[in-house]
Each structure stands twice: as structure tokens, then as C-alpha cells.
Design goal:
Strand 1, helix 1 and strand 2 form a beta-alpha-beta unit. This protein has 260 residues and is an alpha/beta fold. It has helices at residues 39-56, 67-75, 89-96, 148-159, 163-166, 176-185, 195-200, 234-241, 244-252; strands spanning 33-38, 60-65, 82-84, 106-110, 113-118, 139-142, 170-173, 190-194, 204-209, 219-224, 256-257.
Length: 260
């Protein structure tokens, strides 16, 4: 998805002059920017939202969940100013229903897959092929049926010709926090998770990065949602999302910004 900028009228807005739901002008509490965010990026968006509020006084409210479920809520009438999804599908659905302009969609951030182990153990890898060695007893990934990261991990292992060799030693965790717990406890020698999740785990160390060529791009696109009562701060917030402060916060959280 190509990065596209959304025009907006003026970076300096008097937020109290317009409000959601017909609040009177001059209201001391400007309406929040309503952000629907895929679970994997909700935490970093909350940090960016806090930084935006400190600069402008306009609040940002982040609601997280599965991307498909969030887009379905918007289709059914849930108010939102912005959707940041895991993958392009949910954004395409909003465009199909006329709830987002294709020109408002932009590539925001990407993620990487990494191999991790417990920081307390002296395990290492010189190549991904060593995961199939007799010395590795268990490898944990998210269950591809319930964790998107697990789908990417499975695809990467299949591309590398390792899935068939590893199937008997793979533990399928219901979600990524559970996978990290398995690595931290020693139940699994190694795990494959997002770089951003590894960054949050203090008892985990990254031993290798999975080549991006082995799986589809791990993308987090965003789009402005068209609805009545939109926050007057929505357009400035979207611009802030592609600014230097948001870039720093993204990188600190283990993501790769998709903008300069």
C-alpha cells in the first residue's frame, strides 16, 4: 500500500470551536480522536496519543482488538476517526463500503520476526537450520489459527524448508504472551515472535532475525474513517502519526516506520 498524505486545513486548530455530538462551542473538553487499533500496535499508539495530547490538549482514545473485528464494528456503525490494522484487508473493506477514502490510506509501520530465547540461558544459534538440530527440543510459535504472528512464523519456516523437520518439536501457543512465557520458563528452547513483542519482554533475548523474504510483509496500514461527528483533531493527529516524535516512539517500541 502506497504512502499517501491526507490534506487538512491548517495545523493550528481551535479544538473548542467544534465538537462531537453537538457540544457547545468553547467546551473545555474537546472531543477525543477515536482510534481503532490492531492489538499489536495499540500500546505504541497509546504512547503516541499521549504525546499528541501533551502538545495540543486534544485527547486520543485507543480501542484495540482484532483488525477484522474492528473493521466489522465500523461497518456496523461504531464511531471511529482512524483505523490502524494488521494487514491491508480491513482497510480495503472500509474502502469497499465507502467508509474510508482510498486516498486517505497510508502505510504506517512494519514489524519483523525474530528468534528469541530466555535471557537466563546461554543458548545461541549460528543459523536457522540449527533449530532442527537434536540439541533443540522445543520451538514455540503462536498458533496460526489464533495468532497472526504464528501464521507468519509458520510461513517463514515453510519457505526455509524447516517446517516438516520441526513439526514434532513445535509448541503452538494460543497467543504471543503465552509463547513468551514458554520461552522465559524454559518450556521451549526458542520462540519466534514479533520484534516489538520481544522488545517488551525483559527476560527474553533476541538471537536472530528472520529474513523478510521468507514471509509476507508484516504491515500496519492506516486510514481515516469517514463518519459524522469526526473529531476536529483527527487530521492533525494523522499528520502527527507520520512526524519525528511518532517515528522515535515507533522505533523505540521495535517497529519500523513506513515514512521518512
Amino acid at each position: 500500500m502506497n504512502s499517501m498524505r491526507i490534506p487538512f486545513a491548517g495545523a493550528l486548530l481551535v479544538f473548542g470551536l467544534a465538537s462531537r455530538g453537538g457540544a457547545a462551542a468553547g467546551d473545555a473538553s474537546p472531543p477525543p480522536v477515536l482510534v481503532f487499533a490492531a492489538t499489536g500496535v495499540s500500546g505504541v499508539l497509546e504512547r503516541i496519543g499521549k504525546a499528541f495530547t501533551e502538545k495540543t490538549g486534544a485527547p486520543v482514545q485507543v480501542s484495540s482488538g482484532g483488525s477484522a473485528a474492528l473493521s466489522d464494528k465500523i461497518v456496523k456503525g461504531a464511531p471511529a476517526d482512524l483505523l490502524v490494522s494488521a494487514g491491508p484487508g480491513p482497510i480495503a473493506l472500509l474502502i469497499q463500503y465507502g467508509l474510508a477514502d482510498e486516498g486517505s490510506a497510508f502505510a504506517w509501520a512494519t514489524n519483523r520476526l525474530v528468534v528469541v530465547t530466555s535471557a537466563e540461558h546461554a543458548l545461541s544459534l549460528s543459523s536457522l537450520d540449527e533449530l532442527a538440530s537434536a540439541g533443540v527440543h522445543h520451538l514455540v510459535i503462536g498458533n496460526p489459527a489464533s495468532a497472526v504472528a504464528g501464521s507468519y512464523a509458520q510461513r517463514a519456516l515453510m519457505t526455509l524448508g524447516l517446517w516438516a523437520k520441526l513439526k514434532e518439536k513445535v509448541i503452538l501457543a494460543p497467543d504471543i504472551p503465552s509463547a513468551l512465557d514458554d520461552v522465559e520458563s524454559g518450556k521451549a528452547d526458542f520462540g519466534i515472535v514479533y520484534a516489538s513483542d520481544a522488545r517488551l519482554a525483559s527476560r527474553i533475548k533476541v538471537v536472530m532475525t528472520i529474513p523478510e523474504r521468507t514471509h509476507d510483509p508484516i504491515q500496519y496500514p492506516a486510514a481515516r474513517v469517514a463518519h459524522s461527528g469526526a473529531s476536529p483533531a483527527a487530521a492533525p493527529f494523522i499528520d502527527f502519526l507520520r512526524g519525528p516524535e511518532a517515528k522515535r516512539i515507533l522505533e523505540d517500541a521495535g517497529f519500523t516506520p513506513s515514512f521518512p
